[in-house]
Amino acid sequence: MNAMDILMRRWRLETESTVPPFEQVRLRILDLAASGELAVGTKLPSVRALAADLGVAANTVARAYRELEQAGVVVTAGRSGTSVATGGDRLAAKVADAADAFAAVVRELGVPQAQALRIVTAALERG
């Protein structure tokens, strides 16, 4: 199964969503890379091919790829295309570090756990 098949399997852009299309694409690739469904080294579809398949502008996919590259999830090698650079390990480590720092502040300030969790949930929902 190629990367396009994996990306599109049981998934479509939600046109009525408040989440912008580039973010939906970014999150889909991020989830697939973190789960291992898109293995390290897997070549992603070209920006134009994925945009055509999704029915969005090429800039939408290009922005998702660019943000994933800045996060170290994918790497672009010019004409060779874009491929998955890392699975979820590096990302999970960054999230765990941020969670540890947040927990330290919560403990230091004496914020109850339930309130801290509500704060995190609200921050995640705000995007």
TrEMBL record:
GO molecular function, one term: DNA binding
One Pfam family from the record: GntR
Domain of life of the source: Bacteria
Presence of the UniProt keyword Zinc in the record: no
SMART domains assigned: HTH_GNTR
Domain HTH gntR-type: 19-87
UniProt xrefs under CDD domains: WHTH_GntR
The keyword Cell inner membrane belongs to this UniProt entry's keyword annotation: no
This protein's UniProt keywords: DNA-binding, Transcription, Transcription regulation
Protein name: DNA-binding transcriptional regulator YhcF (GntR family)
Organism listed in the record: Arthrobacter stackebrandtii
Phylogenetic placement of the source organism: Bacteria, Bacillati, Actinomycetota, Actinomycetes, Micrococcales
